[in-house]
Amino acid sequence: MIPSLWELAMLDFNLMQDLYKSELKDVSRWWSSLRLYEKLPFIRDRLVENYLWSLGGAFEPENSSNRIAQTQANCLVTTIDDIYDVYASLNELEAFTVAIEQWDIAAAEALPEYMQICLSALFSTVEDQGHEVFKKKGLDIIPYLRRAWKDLCRAYLKEARWYNNGYVPTLDEYLENAWASISGHIVFSYAYCINNYVTSDQLEKFLSGYPDIVRYSSITFRLYNDMGTSIVEQERGDIKKSVQCYMHHNGVTESVARKEIKEMIRKYWTLINGETLGNYCAFEKYLKNVACNMTRMAQCNYQHGDGYGKPDRETKDQITSLLFDPIKLN
After folding, report:
1. Are the beta carbons of 312 and 305 closer than 8 angstroms?
2. pTM for the predicted model, two decimal places
3. Domain residue spans in the chain?
4. Which residues contact 241 (CB under 8 A, 6 or more apart)?
5. Exposed (0-12), middle (13-18) or buried (19+): which is 282, by Cβ within 10 Å?
6. Going by CATH, does the domain composed of 11-324 fall within 1.10.600.10?
7. pLDDT tens digit sequence for 193-252
């Protein structure tokens, strides 16, 4: 390698690391101001891991605004996921979902205090994110972000009903809901709405729904997640995941089910790669890269277990080397 090129690459890495640390400080101030991890002590406090996921989706310097907003969204997804999965009763979740559907803080007055705190944080954050984009580009993205959050909570509620009723869905039925409950469409919605490319015409096109690559990437994301986390989640009390659904309805062992899920992942990767081939404008290329990178992050994060819910040494080393340890220049 040409020495000057190597030195330039190291310098570029350090400059990008400085930008990433600055962004992390910004979202840390936001997260600290909400104090959700103090007010709701049952939730997972994973700010840095959430930033790492945002960074994996869109690492380029021009995507700074998206990374900050996406990290905020990731933190709120984790908070809401823990409410649905481990803390609230089904009756509370039914009422919580209604409040999300109405998107009105007044509708939350009858909810438990911890749910009111969560909704207040969600509503205010989305409003702030929308206001920032409107100031810069004159675009109203709030309806699209609201749609994504409503879709997420509908999927969460369906899983909560399954769990409370002791229902085990077929694998197809499970994935039809799980592609939304994994929150991949949240990632895509934020990527679509908060970037340097989007126009009013492109926002209008987004009204028609999520493109195929979002479903493909989200299902693959879900399958990677299930392969890495399903045992732990079963122990803490959660619905049957893809592995268990396949075992239940096909009468096979766990090893056979896992082999089938791995084959499904391979097939969905083929679909994802097919979606990324072709000549696209900068906006479309950016979106497809985000969707593809989200799946890559899932593969990286869950290949040895749950690198998000229970970060291991490898995850911590990745965070340290990427965000905190600069390369020493000669």
Report:
1. yes
2. 0.93
3. 11-324
4. 174, 226, 229, 230, 233, 234
5. exposed
6. yes
7. 999 999 999 999 998 899 999 999 999 999 999 998 755 555 555 688 999 999 999 999
